[in-house]
Amino acid sequence: MTLGKPHLGGGAGGRHRPSQAMLAISLLALVAAGCGGSSGAASSSTSLASSQVLKYPVFQNPGTWDPGEADAEVDTEFMQNVFDNLWRFDDSLNIVPDIATTVPTASNGGISADGLTYTVHLNPNATFDNGDKVTAEDVLYSWDRAVALQGPYSSNLSAIAGYADVQSAAGSPPASSTGSPLNFQQSIENGLWGCFRGKGTAGATCNSSLEMSGLTAPDGLTGETVQIVLANACGWCLAAWTLEGTTGAIVDENAIHNDPVNWWTKPSSATDGMVGTGAFYLASFTPKQSMVFKAVKNWWGSPKPTLTEVDIDIKDPSALATTVAAWKQGSYGIIGYGGDSGNLDYPTIESIKSSSYSKDLLTQPKGRTTWLSFNIGYPSTGGPFVGESAAAVGLRKAFDLAVDKQGLASTVCHDLLCTAATGGLITKGLIGNLGDGQDPLAQYDPTQAKQLLKEYDPTGTLTANLTYSYNTGGLNDPVAAYLQNEWQTNLGIHVNLNPVGDASQFISNRLGGQYVMSRDGWQFDYNNPQDWYANLWGSFATAAGANTSGFDDPTYDSVLNQADALPITQALPLYNQLATILQQDVVYIPLYYSVGNFLIQPWVKGAGSNTGFDYYWDQISILSH
Amino acid sequence: MLVYIVQRLAIIALTLLVVSFGVFVVVHSLPGNAFISQRVHGRSLQILLHEYGLDQPVMVQYWHFLTGAIHGNLGVSLYIRGEQVTPLVLRELSVSCEVGGAALIVTIGMGVTFGVLAAIRQNTWVDYLLTSIAVVGYTVPSFVIAGLGIMIFADFLGTITGGAFAYSPVWTGTYGTIGELWLPALAIGFYTSGQITRITRASMLEVIQQDYIRTARAKGLRERVVTIRHALRNALVPVISILGTTVVGILVGVLVVENIFGIPGLGKEFVESITEHDYNVTVGVFTIFALLIGLSNLAVDLIYTLVDPRIRY
After folding, report:
1. Of these four, A202, A503, A545, B277, which has the most CB atoms within 10 Å of its CB?
2. Across the beta sheet with A290-295, what order do the strands follow?
3. pLDDT digits over B89-132, tens only?
4. Would you tell me which residues 166-205 of chain A have a C-beta closer than 8 angstroms to some C-beta of chain B?
């Protein structure tokens, strides 16, 4: 018996003609293509869309939204919409009132004549989103708690009398047997509960050593006046206290008390969760997946939010291509918000610029500068740049002048992702920037560079086997290659590259002064030069373990202390003097200012960014589209 | 059979112990940690390390982890401060199972169907086409297919149809929608189905030559019944034997493809937890994966006994 060829419907080798139905469908698709609008087309509508839900992605997980612990831009960009400080920065980075009714000055009596006492009146309408009224005790609790937690921004409050005493009293957390942070934060909460909201409740105790002596409520804890007494004059304090999403933010003890560790991960409710005074509250949080914020009904502040909801998807940076594709389809309103303005890479930006979406691309300088630091103050690390001898300064100058900074911006950044840092280390647009081309270290003079090298290292032994260290990723790799090429070409020196794959390890090593030459950088926190000069050089930075170069000069410290005590108008010439000191000593090689790139749909009105932060959600609305 | 299952489960438990210990020691020996930044160093860093017990000896830390893990508590995330790891990992596992399950359906559906069709249409254009597709399938990695799929179905199709017909590369909620799931499943399944196709085809060709198939036809059974009920069942035995490695291949594909599509599963977590120095999450993910592979291999062995009654443990 032979096997016949099996038939499974239709003859093998039979031909099928396209059906008329298929042809019709194809034609319909072509018509749809012709009629369909592109997301890149400008929205001519000015009327509001019925759905006021803004959706956008972020490419980092939030670490913490506890203002006492937060330190990452991705966190503070959300927190600024949920929490308020006594003051806020407006879109032009000016300090304006927020929970406080006015910005204290000497002329309005908000600051005493000696500059040591600030009197702040709270807005009587200010409330938390769970309905709790904001009173003086909330300010005292929030700032005392932030100091006791000793988080990354606790030093913003360091000028207040009693700061050091509270930190000392809070001490270190007890040894953890389970790896849970509960004990430390719980002990602080237990100590403060009886001082403020829990005062008088059964079992509540007050550990008064956790209260800063310089922070009081003259009209009582439930009053609307707060008095801040400083241990020393502080011209930068107001700016530091205004930094949104960090230690200056006002939090609700009623919400924190029940779960001092994880309160911020829970949706806001009457008794717990991420309760703030901002225009939005956390409605849901799925870690590593998504977050939903909703507008607070009848919010006390202004402008009243038009958006009803903000949905945020948490993506991995490797999903950038799909995310941009989703944006083009209109699934997302914005890309770049949430501290991710540096995520759009050059090929993506170029393709956008050459497409119909080009007008939806927003380019904004960001308050972030990158430079190269020399090892100046750590003899154990070695290298030819250590110290202040003529040779050391001369060689630093040689390496500096051998680098074409404008060329770097063009070659590496394509003039899109960064701009040459020619106005000093403080980014353009911030107080303390010297102006384009005003930094002598931004010059490019390979001839003089060679002369200096010949003068101070005629045999080449001092500059042999040098290494430039950097953390890999982003622009760091091409910048390193560029620098290596510049030194080879203009000085004839081969500098080895030391790429460090782990960013945390690199930062730890760098802050410990373990590199002869290293990539360095800073993202500004508040618009005051103190933020830069105190945190990066000098004895304060050294004491904090954050002085990469080890540059520590008595004159620098003296000028810095004087400047820090003065209001900014008087302090600025002194801060500029610090810039001059750093330049004369060739402490750094300026490289570039970062530039952020955003994709914003034409129907998202009010979105944007300044040098410091994304515009608040309460300014954004969705137009019909 | 029960003894066999218990023995296998014991081996899986031992494997989990070895994997968790090995991964724990390795990640804790990596330089850096989850907290260091330009702002977090010195005292504030020491406070955090102390808070989370990271300044204790590694063996002490592992002991705390193990005693918690036995009770289902994998500890807390270091990156998302204080977030419980167990619910996080279980949620992401369920998402990965969804994607992996869909990929498995594509794998088996495509692989077996193409293999059967190619076999019964041997040496025709159908055979040539389907075997060519299989070759392409197991030659081209899943991440390449994923990228091509996005280019074609999201970008290109979206552009030419003005968005009317396009794949939406946005993952909705935790588990997405069918419209979002099909492309990642296809990207993974297309790659793993290639081998299934070829083995099914070869196995079918052998089986349809057998006497009992001839007998079935002689009895007047319809060809579809002969193919599916008689031939395919026996042809599947070798296919099931490679199902174990196929499942592993799917899991690996899931890891990669989830990152490309931004799917909030274990794949994304694998890389993220390592780069973020989120030790407890890393150990949890690796342990869960080891458990998944162990259980899936056990399942495949048990399925074998259903398909081939001659096999007994």
Report:
1. B277
2. A53-58, A309-314, A290-295, A280-286
3. 999 999 999 999 999 999 999 999 999 999 989 999 999 999 99
4. 172-173, 175-181, 184-185
10 Å Cβ neighbour count for A505?
17
A32 to B164: CB separation less than 8 angstroms, yes or no: yes
Three-state SS at B241 = helix
Q: Does B91 touch chain A (CB under 8 A)?
A: yes
Q: CB count, 10 Å around CB of B224?
A: 12
pLDDT digits 0-9 by tens, A33-87: 444 333 344 456 789 999 999 999 999 888 899 999 998 888 999 999 999 999 9
CA-nearest of A472, A469, A587 to A518 is A469
* Whether residue A303 has a cis bond before it, omega within 30° of 0: yes
Instruction: Tell me the chain B residues in contact with residue A8 when contact means C-beta distances shorter than 8 Å.
Output: 117, 120-121, 223-224
pLDDT tens digits for A179-220? 455 578 888 999 999 999 999 898 888 999 999 999 999 999
Q: Does B76 touch chain A (CB under 8 A)?
A: yes
pTM of the model: 0.88
Output the six-digit token pair for B261: 């599509």
Query: Is B272 in contact with A288 (Cβ distance < 8 A)?
Result: yes
For A99-136, the pLDDT digits (tens) are: 999 999 999 999 999 999 999 999 999 999 999 999 99
Cβ under 8 Å to A: B residues 107-166? 117, 120-121, 124-126, 147, 150, 154-155, 158-166
End-to-end CA distance of chain A: 70
User: Residues of B122-159 as b/e, b for ≥16 C-beta within 10 angstroms?
Assistant: beeebbeebbebbeebbeeebbebbbebbeebbbebbb
Cβ-contact A74, A62 below 8 angstroms: yes
Rg (CA), chain B: 24
Q: How many CB pairs under 8 A join A and B?
A: 226
**Residues near A301 by beta carbon (within 8 Å), at least 6 away in sequence:** A84, A98, A126, A277, A278, A279, A618
> Which parts of chain A have pLDDT scores under 70?
1-44, 173-182
Nearest-Cα distance to chain B for A407, in Å, is 28
